[in-house]
């Protein structure tokens, strides 16, 4: 077969073995569900990016988070989770883990390591982090929590979708499992679902891999190929997202309609000091609060936007906006904010065009 720049896409459930004596040889691929050329190229690349001994793939980002929890927890265990966690993960803890006998308790999204560790009991098996939080962007002292967890024999895992394996390296900071929704920045084009979990310790990797095999997860070779292609441009896209987001965030900060900007890479923003210490770059995602305004005015602002689509998810080439207030009451401790919370994903459009769009949106808010 000719050698190409990119990996071949092997579509196959059945794998033909060379001889009868190799049918049960577990050292070679014997069935397509385990992944063939394209999936292997993707996990090799993610291993290098994450500094991992191995990476497991899952059919979505949410499946990666729930897969890690299922693989590493058992009945009677206690799980500590940041109150800023991605909403569907919270739902899984309540609706699936609780009936299976795993308790979940939440710590404040900006809790100091000592506060987190003070909640640990002899049953606490894992701490699940997400830093910054998806909507409100609180940061955690991840290295300190990972170190304290290790000293107490408690595993740490992080939903590092924000970091994309690129601008924050959880495994290098001592976290046991780095999880990503590859759907976001790695895919980068809003047309693919996939998740990953990477580990630095072979024993933890074996437990994650057993979880994948036992539950029966598999990702398609075509999706793995596309995801691998996304990785090629991740770093250059991310740099542009980050530069444009900073420009837009700085502009919003000057606007009289805006109460606060929650963008860790922006100097003066909450969490900026931890971000500067632990991150090597920014991305396109941040939020801001408007000064108190009615829901009608908030909707008028969003509906007036032209370049920003109204939609969930992020990490693609396109800019998106949502209002977040309907999601905040699900938190154990709803954040105290100065007004309605808007989250933006800054895509790859020209930042001056995005600013002009926001400016006319704020005009509709003022008029609304
Ligand atoms: C989107 C997202 C997920 C879930 O990813 P899917 O591929 O949509 O299932 C998990 N965590 C975070 C932080 C996310 O933003």
What tags apply to this protein structure?
Aspartate Aminotransferase, domain 2, 368 residues, 5-stranded mixed beta sheet, 36% helix, binds pyridoxal-5'-phosphate, single chain, 7-stranded mixed beta sheet, Aspartate Aminotransferase, domain 1, 10 helices, alpha/beta
What are the bound molecules?
Answer: pyridoxal-5'-phosphate
Whole-angstrom Rg: 21 Å
- From the 3D coordinates, which CATH architecture of the largest domain would you assign? 3-Layer(aba) Sandwich
Strand composition percent: 15-25%
What is the H/E string? HEHEHEHEHEEEHHEHEHEEEH
Uncertain segments: none
What structural category characterises the helix and strand content? alpha/beta
CATH class membership of the largest domain: Alpha Beta
Helix count, per DSSP? 10
Helix content: 25-40%
Question: What is the CATH topology descriptor of the largest domain?
Answer: Aspartate Aminotransferase, domain 2
Distance between the termini: 64 Å
How would you portray this structure in words?
The protein is built from ten helices and twelve strands. With 368 residues, the protein is an alpha/beta fold. The chain has two domains: 20-232, Type I PLP-dependent aspartate aminotransferase-like (Major domain) (Aspartate Aminotransferase, domain 2); 234-367, Aspartate Aminotransferase, domain 1 (Alpha-Beta Complex). Helix 7 crosses helix 10. Bound molecules: pyridoxal-5'-phosphate. Pyridoxal-5'-phosphate binds next to helix 2.
